[in-house]
Design brief:
Layout (H helix, E strand, L loop, with lengths): L1 E3 L6 E3 L6 E6 L5 E5 L4 E4 L6 E3 L15 E9 L2 E8 L4 E5 L1
Protein name: WD domain containing protein
Organism: Entamoeba histolytica
Length: 96
């Protein structure tokens, strides 16, 4: 995976720690990925990637406790809400 810096046109390489399971295209050319560990990435060409995952002490913060199996988006004006669900029935909503 890499993103391109639009000012210098250099590639910025990254690596996924966990296997991506689901993906969707969001507004403003954002890509939303759901991973098997329950984390969610919001990738944008213009800004830094946002990563939602479990905290160091195991508390859930804006991510699913189990494997993300479904991601969908709800767009309103210039705002978007991402709805993710996992394989044990948890549903979360993240505003981007």
């Amino acid at each position: 995976m890499y993103s391109i810096n639009t000012k210098t046109y250099e590639r910025d390489y990254g690596q996924f720690v966990s296997k991506p399971i689901t993906a969707m295209k969001g507004i403003n050319d954002k890509i939303i990925l759901g991973f098997e560990d329950g984390s969610i990435d919001i990738i944008s060409l213009n800004t830094k990637t946002i990563h939602f995952n479990k905290s160091a002490n195991g508390k859930i913060r804006n991510c699913c406790p189990s494997k993300v199996i479904s991601i969908s988006g709800i767009e309103r004006d210039k705002d978007m809400k991402v709805v993710a669900s996992d394989d044990i029935g948890t549903i979360i909503v993240v505003s981007i």
